[in-house]
Amino acid sequence: MKTSTLVPEYMKIRQFVLNRYMSIHEPEKLPAEREMCEMFNVCRGTVRKALSDLTREGYITSRARSGNFIMPTENHFGIQYSRHKFKRVAMIKDRGMNISMGWQSMKMMSGIYRTMSDREVIMENINFSSFDKSIINQLGQLTLDGILWQVNRRSVLDKIKEFLKNNENFPPVMLISFQPETEFENVIYIDYKKAYYHAAEYLFKLGHRDILYVGYNPKIHGCDEELEMLKKAHINHNIPFNRNLIIEECDGIADRFEGMLQTGNLPFTAVICRSLFCEMIYETAAKRGMSIPRDFSLVSERDIFTKRLKKSLTLMSPPLENLGSVAAIKLADIIEKKITSPVRIELECEISEGDSCKKI
Description:
Blueprint: E1 2-3, H1 9-23, E2 28-29, H2 33-40, H3 44-56, E3 60-63, E4 67-70, E5 88-94, H4 99-115, E6 120-126, H5 133-140, E7 146-150, H6 154-165, E8 173-177, E9 186-190, H7 195-205, E10 211-216, H8 223-236, E11 246-248, H9 253-262, E12 270-273, H10 278-287, E13 297-301, H11 304-307, E14 314-317, H12 320-335, E15 343-347, E16 350-353
Parallel strand pairs: 5-6, 5-7, 7-8, 8-9, 9-15, 10-11, 10-12, 12-13, 13-14
Antiparallel strand pairs: 1-16, 2-4, 3-4, 14-16
């Protein structure tokens, strides 16, 4: 499987810098802006956007008449210190995670372990169904320098926020979440609502116009924004948005999808679906003598359910390992007081090309 060239260009520059950040121990000068334009085949504005974001987040610094430098061993005031003076951090996750979230946790942990290979990282599962002194004591007994805290349920996020507010002496925390509206001081998250926007953009550039979206659930918090992002993708390409090409979870997805296939004249050329319904789409199409991508293209979420198909799917891939790596790096910076202002980083899903899509 290869990474699509339709990933936002500035993200390629960002990934290049982050990879260098994680592998060097001394300041390293970045290529000049003109050279980076040639390296990534982008305009200077794209390079400057990426460098501006990375500077704001503390990964690089600019020196007059010298250029831009990746600074893994220096804070914003030029004070030298050794990396990772701390000894012990914890990765804590809520027990309420489902099987899908458990798989995501494993991917993130690989990035965390890779980044903090020289320090002790422990795993803790804590039940946040109730907050009491026993939980506070459980955390206190771990003797931690910092915490990476993965949680996604809104009720749990509110409890953690209140807990941290009332425990100012608690070790530094970097929250890992899939809730972009989370109001925490230090948080890194993946905004899944933009994943379907990128999938639609990808399919439009392949020549598709009629896209079926399977699995929309208007009762889920954030789905209104997700729908607006899909509409925006249509507007970008002057393609009318057809509300009839959305199958909601409450609609009886299998029956509605099979009904569309029965007509023989498909009203769509591509499908974007949640991973939970990917297997159903394959099986229903096979019953009708159809195959993917011969009869229609398919883009799905990257998830444990799609792995069961053993197919080379085109996926909306959350950069989970990168999420874990960046979270670990920023926690290290916070512990060592390299960063004193709040950290808020958003990562977006990328399109990974497989064999389930074709140009038309």
